[in-house]
Design goal:
262 residues, alpha/beta, six-stranded mixed sheet, four-stranded antiparallel sheet, 12 strands
Length: 262
């Protein structure tokens, strides 16, 4: 029996400027539950916009988003936040929240309006910090952190939300090699626990380390979508990025190289 997709997008159209071309142009896509899916494409093709539409931050001019078999527009903001969490590429934090205070904000969808975090909420926030080995930063103000540390703290906040669907926009962009591997380990663990992870990336080789499925986007449309084995090929990536790309295998893992190399 085939499992229904946890996320279905149908004929999405979205444009920031009514006088200009659409950023998403009739995009349709199914995302399987309990797996990690990477969205790849060149700059400006609509990857971040797609995540914002899934999250509900942007409303498409036409088309439909269904999450767990129900239209996104039929849910309240609180209900949606219990289902979907997001780690943005950059997030401006205007106040000097400590890391613990900031991560605790991830519990907001589970706390009554004007209510206070419970002991269980605080424990979940601490567990999320520990999952990324950030406990030494718990009482540091978030604005004082490095870009890489802040990215991991933002992920910890999303983990504290305990949503079954996690969206990550360029999650490794500010990370060094060690922290990149730490983040990829967390993504692996989330998928092992049955969560659905969707992330965008500029680095196909990094994406190949954890992704089960690939979505290739160009000009606001899905070019190809499917398993790593079927989609992550030289031909498909060359068509996506518009430059020669070669996929080689190193110790059993796919690695992306410029196509002109011998």
């Amino acid at each position: 029996m085939i499992e229904p997709p946890i996320l279905s997008l149908r004929d999405l159209h979205f444009g920031y400027d009514t006088a200009g071309p659409d950023t998403l142009c009739g995009l349709s896509l199914d995302i399987p539950a309990g797996a990690t899916t990477v969205v790849l494409g060149a700059n400006g093709v609509g990857k971040t916009t797609l995540l914002h539409v899934i999250l509900g931050l942007l409303t498409p001019q036409s088309g439909e988003v269904q999450i767990a078999g129900r239209r996104q527009t039929d849910r309240t903001r609180r209900e949606s936040s219990r289902l979907v969490a997001m780690v943005p590429h950059n997030e401006h934090i205007p106040f000097d929240f400590s890391v613990l205070e900031y991560v605790l904000m991830g519990r907001s969808p589970h706390i009554a309006t004007l209510g206070m975090p419970s002991r269980a909420d605080c424990e979940i926030a601490v567990e999320s910090i520990e999952a990324l080995r950030l406990q030494h930063l718990s009482h540091r103000p978030v604005p004082a952190l490095s870009g890489g540390e802040r990215q991991l703290v933002t992920l910890a906040r999303a983990l504290a939300q305990r949503a079954p669907i996690l969206l990550l926009d360029e999650p490794t962009a500010h990370l060094d090699l060690g922290n990149t591997m730490r983040l990829l380990d967390v993504i692996d663990g989330l998928a092992d626990q049955g969560n659905t992870v969707i992330f965008t990336s500029h680095d196909p080789s990094v994406a190949a380390l954890v992704a089960h499925n690939v979505v290739l986007i160009r000009d606001g449309r899905v070019l190809d979508a499917g398993s790593m084995e079927s989609v992550f090929t030289s031909e498909h990536l060359t068509r996506t990025y518009g430059v020669p790309v070669r996929v080689a295998t190193v110790e059993g893992l796919p690695v992306v190289l410029p196509g002109r190399l011998p």
